[in-house]
Specification:
The structure is a homodimer. By secondary structure, chain A is an alpha/beta fold. Helices cover about 45% and strands about 15% of the residues of chain A. Chain A has 14 helices and 10 strands. In chain A, α7 links the parallel β4 and β5. In chain A, α2 runs antiparallel to α3, α3 packs parallel to α5 and α9 runs parallel beside α10. Chains A and B meet through α4, α5, α6, α7 and α8 of A and α4, α5, α6, α7 and α8 of B.
Chain lengths: ~300, ~300
């Protein structure tokens, strides 16, 4: 099944556009996990798996996808990558779309190796889509496109990232328009070969929730692509700002929250209500609230 | 010891500016390795280590550094990363500067995790420097700078990559000048805090050998930085084109070749002279020839 069709199906089935980001930063974990993790790298990696498994068990019925931030796994070397493999597999077994947030980008045979590693038919990772950095231009994207198309996988190409200094390069003006628009048009072109029966392409874009005006422009350029939106919650993106990232069909965007779900026990009002001992309840309430909030806006008039 | 000082010392000691790139693509390996590798991912990872160890043993006396392309290791998941750890360690034990060609780039706590993973004091990898993708702007670079400076490590930030389509983005014109120049100036600024006693900064740039004109301009902007130059050999970069990438002191650039060293047995004239059975001799002659060729131009008048 085409990746975009899979996403549409899951959104409708779950009535949710939420992606639970798994950014298991050891310092933020509940105490019992943190203590075990501090023993040694292997123990830390096992904790990453155990924690992510708990999160997945809690959120699975409310979210479309999980997005694993691989950096937090790479921190523990081969042990960490083993945990990453296990988390991907567990998420997949729970029926979730699994997005590997790897932001890789390179050229020719190196890009071939990355795309085969994560999206190839012999991949060791149960991954449905990856994030890709477009710095290299088409040479860096084509190998990913090819492998993704062959194996019904998805890509989310960085277009406008959520961090404050992303403007330094992404908003430089070329021939009267900002670079992120140039990228958006390229993503549109790269995605043309991968449109599914629901009308959406398996080649999407990463667009930060923290820049609603730019997001609106990108939505117009990329009307057929799924936007993967980080930056909701802890980074400051608000749900009302996200309205224009959806198409009139209520589709076209999936919204990621990482810390504000996984570590909800640290965030008002859940810190007071639940605290660390009931961190699982905080996760559940945070994800339900996010799902409802977004459903409240994604079908509202533009 | 400051990373740039270490590089200068090694260049002088070895009388070489050559970096041996380790891009162990299974398909290119001599037959005996390839056959073993095709059994299963663990066997493949062990082959990556065994092959890279042989290369390191052959080239160690002729090169300043090895540059490991992590994609070829990631292809074999946690087994591959274990092999990557072992190759880094072996290179380091042989007295080589170890550059991890990871091209990571991300923001805030994710960039912290990547920089801690590869350059931190508890890193599981014996790595002296990494390559970094600057797409995110300063937010994405600062965490790497901080960890690198704390631990005397180096960074090579992508400025002008060696692939044909790199111009699509890197040569867009902003206020009358191409983006790679804007990147070069930022690298110069980012590197100011990290200048060693030899006058070079530990924050360098990646500049493809395939674009000599642009390389010359970048050299002028980044007079105090080491340039890591891929694209020599198989990708078409010629030694005469590299002259202007060196400073008058014969320093300031290290030149990488991957396939044309590791797989020299496939490349004229070594394919005819040695062939696959004597692939090790081909490696040795290729690296010596490259070293001599570059020494012939790096001190010649500009």
């Amino acid at each position: 099944m085409n990746f975009a069709d899979l996403v549409v199906e899951e959104i409708k089935k779950k009535n949710s556009c939420v992606v639970a980001g798994l950014d298991p930063k050891i310092d933020c974990l509940p105490k019992a996990f943190k203590e075990k993790a501090n023993r040694n790298p292997k123990a830390a990696a096992d904790v990453l798996f155990a924690f992510c498994r708990e999160i997945i068990n809690i959120v699975a019925q409310y979210v479309v996808a999980v997005k694993l931030q691989i950096a937090f796994f790479e921190l523990f070397g081969s042990y960490g990558i083993s945990a990453f493999e296990r988390v991907c597999k567990f998420g997949s077994q729970k029926g979730l779309v699994v997005i590997a947030d790897i932001k890789r980008g390179d050229i020719s045979s190196t890009a071939d190796a990355y795309s085969a590693a994560y999206l190839g038919k012999n991949s060791l990772f149960c991954v449905d889509a990856v994030t890709v950095n477009p710095f290299f231009g088409s040479d860096g994207i084509e190998p990913f496109l090819e492998v993704a198309n062959e194996n019904n996988k998805g890509l989310f190409i960085l277009v406008r990232t959520s961090n404050p200094s992303s403007a330094e390069f992404q908003e430089l003006i070329v021939d009267g328009e900002p670079i992120y628009k140039i990228f958006a048009r390229r993503v549109s072109r790269w995605g043309k070969r991968a449109v599914g029966r629901e009308g959406y392409s398996s080649v999407g874009a990463v667009v930060g929730a923290t820049f609603p005006k730019q997001g609106r422009e990108i939505r117009k350029i990329l009307s057929k692509s799924f936007l993967l939106i980080p930056g909701y919650g802890t980074q400051g993106g608000k749900s009302r700002d996200l309205k224009h990232l959806f198409n009139p069909d209520g589709l076209g965007a999936i919204i990621n929250a990482s810390r504000s779900i996984s570590f909800a026990y640290k965030v008002p009002p859940f810190d007071k209500i639940y605290g660390e001992t009931n961190w699982q309840k905080a996760v559940e309430e945070a994800v339900i609230r996010m799902k409802d909030e977004l459903n409240g806006i994604r079908f509202s008039p533009q």
